[in-house]
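PROTEIN DESIGN WORKSHEET
SECTION A - STRUCTURE
LENGTH: 84
TOKENS:
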């Protein structure tokens, strides 16, 4: 099984621990904030045929809900077979 864990930047430390326990490769998630309030979420494009888990704390969900949705959709477009 080819597992990939994609943590949001604020959850990178936890992501390293979780990735080890899941025997998963960590892939970067880039998140750039622009002055006009827009964001750009980018993923590693080597996700074809992988099982992807995206790690994001939703303690404050409003600013994370759309970037999380965009990350999941992009993982699917890059060929992820399953996502959690």
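SECTION B - SEQUENCE
RESIDUE ASSIGNMENT:
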């Amino acid at each position: 099984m080819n597992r990939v864990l994609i943590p949001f930047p604020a959850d990178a430390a936890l992501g390293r621990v979780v990735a080890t326990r899941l025997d998963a490769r960590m892939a970067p998630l880039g998140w750039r904030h622009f002055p006009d309030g827009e964001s750009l979420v980018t993923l590693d494009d080597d996700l074809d045929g992988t099982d992807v888990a995206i790690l994001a704390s939703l303690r404050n969900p409003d600013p994370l809900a759309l970037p999380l949705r965009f990350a999941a959709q992009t993982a699917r477009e890059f060929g992820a077979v399953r996502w959690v």
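SECTION C - NOTES
The chain has one domain: 3-83.
Residues 3-83 form a domain with the Rossmann fold fold (CATH 3.40.50.2020).
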